[in-house]
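ok trying this again, last paste got cut off
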Amino acid sequence: MKLACAALAATVLVLTGPFADAQELPSRLFLAADRDRNGVLTRAEPETTFEDWTAVTPERLPETIEDALPRLPQNQTPKPEDVQAMVAALPEKAPAKPRKPRRVLVLGRAAGYVHSSIPLAARTIEEMGRKTGAWSTTITYDAADINEKNLAQYDALFLASTTGEFLDDPHDAAATAARRKALLDFVRGGKGLAGIHAASDSYHQNAPVPGAPRAIYGPAVTLARALLAQGDLNGDRQLSREELRALADAWYDKLDPEKVGRVEKAAFPQRFTAVLPPPPPSSPPPLGPTGFPVQAPATQLGPDTQMGTWPEFNRLLGGFFKFHWNDGQLITVKIDEPDHPLNAPFKGQTPLRIIDETYTFARDTYSRHNVRVLTSIDYAAMSAEDKAKEQYPRPDGDYALSWIRPEGKGRVFYEAHGHNEKVYANRPLLAHVLYGMQYVLGDLEVDDRPRP
């Protein structure tokens, strides 16, 4: 049993905190086990569900479970207090008068990690357009809305921290190809694309290693560890059908203490907490001066391991994320071109400092030969300790935060900050996004040629 748990820990990165939401695992497990979709679990249903994982190795168990657990619907409602703070920080007016009524489509679908700030990012674009009169907004979480016919009615598409293969339908290659083509044709035909934060955490992956399992995080890892810890009774590093069935029965006895033979969906999450073994003891991470956990320094240097999976999109957006300083890291923002029109909101605001999760970009995808950099990390202002937290630092020390670029007849704007909801109450940053939006809409003409 100890061997099995050790093998799992060695092959899978286990993340805690927001990655392992206490409500996500029981909710997803109930959906997977409720085979007849009647909102009630009988004893036979978890038995059948667990038996599907028979003889799966510890290395493969997390990804097998991840594929079996249905994803939960994304939250689409921002917190009222976050909306109130954002609205109070919005610019009063747009820098340019729209040449015609403009329409913006916001896509909030995340196929990878789901940021809690997505609904607020979407609402920000909606309220910004409404207050300034610069555009009207439609918000969608459905990738199927990215099609040629629907996009024809919009002037710009805004990607609200989309992650993973956010346009793709894994069961329909033709639909995936059509959506990808529609997005590229939309921009290249003269429309605009804007993205914030995790829009750049899309269509990339670690260079594949033959036979290696996928990197899986959160609920699937938590469940895999629990199954191995409690179910692998003979210590052979595999779970037999009998072991899984016995474990399912033991767990069901705890889930159904009244012995009525049914567990209601509403009662499942609270009762499930008594089923899982307690997490291994650990010391709380030390807190930095901002009150956030201190990020561990890097342990090695080396080449970037990420590769793009949709090169046209990777180049169109300007690069993909490879590392981030943890939320809580203080970043000093450098205004690369103080006189550029899109940087007008920062006049009199420097030095601008932001506390957020701050992205860096792979050296083989982000380049000033491809984008016009507006703002970047003031790398010289970072301490050696903070610099050392990055696993694969860029040798050129070039860490862009926002940029623009032309694409065919269209335009692209990207802003890297936007992980934490508090960022959406940052006045100069919101104004910077407003200027970027008017650029991609075609109402604010600026020099967008790359400056290597």
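PB: full thing came through this time. The longest strand covers residues 321-335.
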